[in-house]
Predict the 3D structure of the following.
Amino acid sequence: MRLPTVFTAMSNILCGYLITHTLTTAELKQQTDLWLLLISSAGLYLGGMVLNDVFDASLDAIERPERPIPSGRISRKAAGLFGASLMMIGTACAAAVGQGSLLIAALIVGAVLLYNGYLKSTIAAPLGMGTCRFLNLMLGASAVGTFTSVWQTTPMTVAVALGIYIIGVTVFAKNEAGKSSSIGLFTGVAVMLCGIGLDAWLVTTSGVKDAIPGSQMALLILGLNVLLRAATVVSNPEPGRIQRTVGLMLLCIIFLDALVVFGMTGDVKHAVLVIMLVAPASLVRRFIPMS
């Protein structure tokens, strides 16, 4: 299931929800819709990860024979049923929130199946991954109303920025189990920085005045961190190093979501709430790989 990365999906939901609702931290505990969306996202994301291994079983038998399916620890059929069950749980929770959430969840299911079944082996693979993340953040914003009312400028811009960042991570991670080219690694980093830059532009133009300087500085530091970590890998593109760096870049999603929440709401407690997801993700990452 790539369990550590589910916390990055949950941070997307918190980001989408918090930038579209005016609530105190205490009031968040009473928001049933938020809890349902968190469970929905977790089910859809983890189901997608499981189905990814189901579709990749033949390739993993060559490149990653230690994974559960090629190693024989679990059958491909059982994994398929498990993944489908998780996706259904995610869709059901979204339906309990409302029609808009259900429709976006259905789009996520379609995007996941399209990516796993076809796009993964094409040049459009990064776009497919970016679309899944774009929709996941919009799922977090979906509790504001109907399907059509969800598509507002602020959440859509944040979702596009996240999608761009994920496209960059996907390009960077291409052939992470094999031989990666320096051009591909540099391209991935450049695209990631574009995603971070778009968030910085949104915060600068539409953020809360008192939160803008701090958000700008933090986003700059985050971008430099991504750049420096990537630079060390380009000098020695060994598969293990790339996989560890990809894991760190995925963890950065949580920080990115938190900084957007702070910049757009000015609420430090809400931002800290998002950042707290780094703790369980980092803990679980010690035992289960993120990629």
In short: The chain has 13 helices and no strands. The CA atoms of residues 142 and 150 lie 5 Å apart. The chain has one domain: 3-285. The radius of gyration is 18 Å.
